[in-house]
Specification:
- Two copies of one chain form a homodimer.
- Chain A has one domain: Ubiquitin-like (UB roll), CATH 3.10.20.
- The longest helix of chain A is centred in the middle third of the chain and has 10 residues.
- By secondary structure, chain A is mainly beta.
- The model of chain A has no long low-confidence stretch (mean pLDDT 95).
- Chain A has one helix and seven strands.
- At the A-B interface, strand 1, strand 2, strand 5, strand 6 and strand 7 of A face strand 1, strand 2, strand 5, strand 6 and strand 7 of B.
- Strand 7 of chain A pairs antiparallel with strand 5 of chain B, so a sheet runs across the interface.
């Protein structure tokens, strides 16, 4: 993991994609510990910037995300987390957090 | 566009996805001008943090990205740009910038 480029806060952007459907589900942040926990458990973990704590996705909702593959981009500053989700990714109940078109 | 949450540098994360294939191609940054140019031209524009200038994707390589849809996430701080790419998204020649698995 030594090549990853974390930002000044020790975080890296994580894009979460449904492995089977291809749908982009959400974007969150990971720190080194979240990456380690994700690898160890096979379930997506993030860093919650609002709560300032490790966030096991689905701990509250039950909608955990089983990780199928972890990819890193060419400049090592973004992770793509391909998952098999147990339910909606979004707190609104939508499958994906990207459910609104960008309007003017 | 008034609801978008730009960061302290006036930027917002943009995830780029192949509209037809579903593949996540790259992650970049947009400012308000990049979003406006993207809407006006129908081609993906970003803000280059390294060059500190507007970056019309494909200006050099020819691999422009025709925008099919612009989506925003539930907390308005990430944009999903669904595109029809003219060629590889990655400067390495790979279709996607996410071509490497994350290793230990």
């Amino acid at each position: 993991m030594e090549k990853l480029k974390f930002d000044a806060n020790g975080l890296i952007t994580a894009v979460v994609q449904d492995d089977a459907e291809g749908e982009v589900l959400m974007v969150a942040w990971m720190n080194a510990k979240a990456i380690r926990l994700t690898k160890e458990t096979g379930e997506a973990h993030f860093w919650s910037r609002s709560r300032e704590e490790i966030w096991r996705k689905g701990s509250t909702s039950g909608n955990v995300m089983k990780v199928v593959k972890l990819l890193v981009d060419c400049d090592q500053d973004t992770i793509l987390v391909q998952v098999n989700p147990s339910g909606p990714a979004c707190h609104t109940g939508e499958v994906s957090c990207f459910f609104q078109e960008l309007r003017d």
